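Hello everyone,

My group is preparing for a crystallization screen and wants a predicted model to guide construct design. The compound we'll soak is pyridoxal-5'-phosphate. Before spending weeks at the bench, it would help to have a computed complex in hand. I've included the protein sequence and the ligand's SMILES below. Output in C-alpha cell form would be ideal because that's what our pipeline reads.
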Amino acid sequence: MNNLADKQPLDAPALDVAGIRAQFPILERQVHGHPLIYFDNAATSQTPLAVIDTFRDYYSRYNANIHRGLHTLADEATAAYEATRDTVRAFLGAAERREIVFTRGTTEAINLVAHSWGRANLKEGDEVLVSLLEHHSNIVPWQLLAGQLGIVVKVIPVDERGVLDLDAYRALFTERTKLVAVNHVSNAFGTVNPVREMATVAHERGALILIDGAQAAPHQKIDVREIDADFYAFSGHKVYGPTGAGVLYGKAELLEAMPPWQGGGEMIKSVSFDVPTIFADVPHKFEAGTPAIAEVIALGVALDWVADVGIERIGAWEAALLQQATDAVSRIDGLRILGTAPDKAGVLSFVVEGAHSQDIALLIDQLGVAIRTGNHCAQPLLAHFGVTATCRASFAVYNTLEEVEIFTAALERVIGMVR
Ligand SMILES: *Cc1c(COP(=O)(O)O)cnc(C)c1O
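Reply:
Good plan to model first. Here are the C-alpha cells for the complex, ready for your pipeline.
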C-alpha cells in the first residue's frame, strides 16, 4: 500500500495516505487471510490512534463525573468535555458554544428535536416534509409523531439519478408546513442535497429546517450559518470518532424556547416538590444524566485530527477514489449503479443482474473486502428504485487507489462465482 505518489490522479490532492494509514491500527489486520480492505465507511469509520489513546488516557488519568465535582479529576474531565463543545462549534461554524448539544448520535439528535420541539410546536394536521432519500432515523421519529399528534409526513420525490426534485419540493409547501427534515448527503446513494437553497425556501414559507449531516460531516466543510440551518445533526463514529457521541446543533433562540426532553441530573438548576423545578440553561437543559464523557472528549480529538488532515483534502481524495471505482465497476457486465447524481459523496451503490447482493457481500468478505449490503436504512428509497438491497462501497481518507483495484478484481471474481 506504499508508494502511492505515482498513482495519484491529476486532480487528487497531495495526501500522505501511507502516513495516514499508519495511524489506523485496524488497517493492519487480515480478514480470511487477506489484508483488510474496509469500504464500509458510511456505516462507521475507523478510528486513528489519537482517538483510541484518548480512552486510555482518560480512564488512566482523569476519569470523573463532570460539572458537579469539586476536585481535580472532575475539573479536568469537565474542562476536556467542554473543550469538545468549542471544537464542534468551530467545526460547524456555529455562532455560540451553547448551540452545541451532545447526544449519542444523529438518531438521538433527531429524536430530541421531534420530542422537544415537535411536541411543543406541532398540532394535528401540521406537516413535516422529509425526502425519499432519508435514513430511517429521519423518517420514523416523524412517523411516531404522526401517530401520536396526527401530523402529516410528506415526501419530497427524487429523479432517476437520485436527485431531489426541487420543483416538487416547492410545490409540497402549504400553510401547514412547519418543518423540513432532510439529509445533507444521502447514505444510500451519496447524493449531496442543496440544503442551503432548501433552507431558503423553507424559511420563505415560514418553516424550519433540520439537516441530518451524518454523511456530510466526514466529507465536506460545514457552515451551519451559511446554510442557515435551524438544526443540524451528526454522529462521531462516522467522522473518525467513537460510537456513543454525536451532536445536535440548534439555533440558540430555538433551543432556549424548547422544553427539555429528558429529565434528570445535570439538566436542572434546582429541584423542589413545592415550587417549580428550574431547568439549566442550554445546552445543559438537553443533556440529562451522566453523558458519554470519554466519548465526547474523543470526538473532539477526532475533529482535531480531521482538521489537521484538512476536510477539503479528505473530500477531494474520496472523490478521486469514487471516480476510479465508478469507472472500473461500470465496465462490469450487468452491473447497475444506483445513485448517479453529479458531485456525489464517496458512496457507490450497485446491484448486479443475476446475483444477490448478499451473496456478493459474503463472498467478497472472504477475500478481505468489507462492503455493506442491505437496505442501508433507506427502505422507501430502495423500494422506489425497485430493489430491496444493494451492495454499497463507501470510502474514507485512508482508502487507496490500489484497494479500489483489488476490490474491482475481487468483485468480478465473485460475480463470476455466483452467476
Ligand atoms: C448513519 C446515519 C444516521 C444514523 O446515525 P446513528 O449514528 O446511527 O445515529 C442517520 N442519517 C444518515 C444519513 C446516516 O448515514
